Amino acid sequence: MAVKVKIPTPLQRLTNKQSQVEAEGFTVGEVLADLERNFPGFKERLYDEKGELRRFINIFLNEEDVRFLEGLNTTVKDGDEISIIPAVAGGSL
Amino acid sequence: MADFTEDQIIRYSRHIVLPQVGGKGQKKIRESKVLLIGAGGLGSPAGYYLAAAGVGRLGIVDQDEVDLSNLQRQILHRTADIGRPKTHSARDRIIELNPDVEVVPYQTSLTSDNVMEIIEDYDLVVNGCDNFPTRYLLNDACVLADKTIVDGSIFVFEGQATVFKPHVGPCYRCLYPEPPPPGMVPSCQEAGVLGVLPGIIGSIQAMEALKLILEIGEPLIGRLLLYDALATEFRILKIRRDPDCPVCGDNPTITELIDYEEFCGLRPARC
């Protein structure tokens, strides 16, 4: 399955400044692994030492947070969109 | 309309003519008390529009002084204000725009010791702060005090906005249970920000605040608005309340304020 992955600004240095890239897989976890193959560095940014998704980064499949679906095992379809959404704090500075 | 002056009726006429607002809605706006956290990039446009709209009381919390590098985006402050407390410069600008507004400056940082007392007097909190400890502090305080937060944040060319209404939708901790370790997410100071971006997100916050005050439309409760300025793209994602959330979940483990510097890894845990 080919899906679009939306890359947030803080991680775009891993994708040569691209805000959207294509990746393949049957589940969200597989798509993220494919992303790591094409753009090394994502795994370290997205997962902690125990291999769990970091708690300040959310992964959405289309408009749903995968934490409330089946997490990394959530299956994807062709044309789906995965968004990586990190916490950002900028405002008043 | 009897208790509005003739000038006020003219000032707010474009509101009053709206069936969704009317004289009754304008009165709700006048009776509302909104607290701005930060008089910076987000707080400037949010505060200025809310003042123009006729909000009764605007509290402004900010510990900083106006710096030359703020003026590229923080539209409440002018060149002549450099070095002045931001809350003073913001108050002056707001009173010049609309003398009906009561401005309450809090020239201080928000801390576990003062937050409950400050938010107590307000109906709504518009959050434009620039750091994680304050975001978690404000979130926990607002869940405990049952105050709604109109939240905004920005990074370089991207912005996020949402509304956290305790126990109705998710809170900040449901969305981001833990903060990033220090240094993992660069600040605006390090990364830069295109000056118009906070203008857009701050204006959305002002609009959401007015909708909540007027009880009209669909506020951004349970929805996260994302704005990508380079792509000119708005997206909305669904966010949910986490029943296991330590502060707003079914069995909360955080029932009083904690040490947020420590929680965000900015200070080693005390033994």
Automatic annotation (TrEMBL), chain A:
It comes from the Bacteria. SUPFAM superfamilies: MoaD/ThiS. Coiled coil: none annotated. CDD domains: Ubl_CysO_like (cd17074). InterPro entries: Beta-grasp_dom_sf, MoaD_arc-typ, Mopterin_synth/thiamin_S_b, SAMP1_3, Sulfur_Carrier/Prot_Modifier, ThiS/MoaD-like. It holds the Pfam family ThiS. NCBIfam families: moaD_arch (TIGR01687), SAMP1 (NF041918). This is Sulfur-carrier protein. It comes from Candidatus Hakubella thermalkaliphila.
From TrEMBL, chain B:
Residues 12-247 form the THIF-type NAD/FAD binding fold domain. The keyword Glycoprotein does not apply. Keywords: ATP-binding, Nucleotide-binding, Nucleotidyltransferase, Transferase. It comes from the Bacteria. GO terms for cellular component: cytosol. Transmembrane segments: none annotated. Pfam families: ThiF. GO terms for molecular function: ATP binding; nucleotidyltransferase activity; sulfotransferase activity; thiosulfate-cyanide sulfurtransferase activity; ubiquitin-like modifier activating enzyme activity. NCBIfam families: PRK05690.1 (NF004281). This is Molybdopterin-synthase adenylyltransferase. It comes from Candidatus Hakubella thermalkaliphila. The lineage of its organism: Bacteria, Bacillati, Actinomycetota, Actinomycetota incertae sedis, Candidatus Hakubellales.
